[in-house]
Amino acid sequence: MRILGIDPGLRHMGWGVISVDGPRLSHVANGVCHSSGDDLSLRLLTLFDQLSDIIATYAPTAAAVEQTFVNKDGAGTLKLGQARGIAMLAPARAGLPIGEYAPNAVKKTVVGVGHADKQQVAHMVRVQLPGVELAGPDAADALAIAICHAHHGGRRAATGTGGTRGGLAAAIARAEAGVRA
After folding, report:
1. Contact assessment for residue 110 and residue 71, using Cβ atoms and an 8 Å cutoff
2. Catalytic residue numbers?
3. Tell me: the pLDDT tens digits for 42-55?
4. Which of 30, 40, 157, 174 is 20 to 30 Å from 49 at the Cα level?
């Protein structure tokens, strides 16, 4: 299984792809998508196009996205939510199941502490993916999200019982089975 982790951001959207073979995780690629343009719609479009290219290049079988947290600044939270929409739209458009994880859940899975700082996250990503060259803190966060999915949602998504699409597919299958019974 290949997992694409995405750390949503309007200016800088981190991404990371890992390969999962049983309990073994390995780094495939990571980077940061940068939006361009003054118009919000054009910035979102550049992020969508870049993520779509990453999906086409690395062919992940699942995706994981960090959930949005609420800032003190309402306008900033709304803009981050729009970037998060793009982070979910690109993999959904490619037919990938998507897992969503709270920032504290990601940190607790990767570091062991739910309130770890970015340096601790990057350090533990390097420990779990030996030899990885991080493209920056946003890419490190995205790899941490992918690692979290591998430990929690990835196994369920592979069996059709977890992730955004997998859960829906399982619910439909159960409903259809109930109708036939």
Report:
1. no
2. 7, 66, 138
3. 999 999 999 999 99
4. 157
Contact between 29 and 71 under an 8 Å Cβ cutoff? The reply is no
Per-residue pLDDT reduced to its tens digit, 13-31:
999 999 999 999 999 999 9
- Which pTM was predicted? 0.83
Q: Which of 144, 114, 139 is nearest to 127 (CA)?
A: 144
The DSSP secondary-structure symbol of 37 reads: S
- List of E strands, 37-138: 62-66, 98-101
Q: Which two tokens stand for residue 101?
A: 């994880």
Task: Answer whether 163's CB lies under 8 Å from 34's CB.
Answer: no
d(CA 110, CA 128) in angstroms, rounded, equals: 8
The strand order across the sheet containing 62-66 reads: 24-34, 12-21, 2-7, 62-66, 98-101
Residue whose pair of structure tokens reads 């995405």 in the numeric block? 6
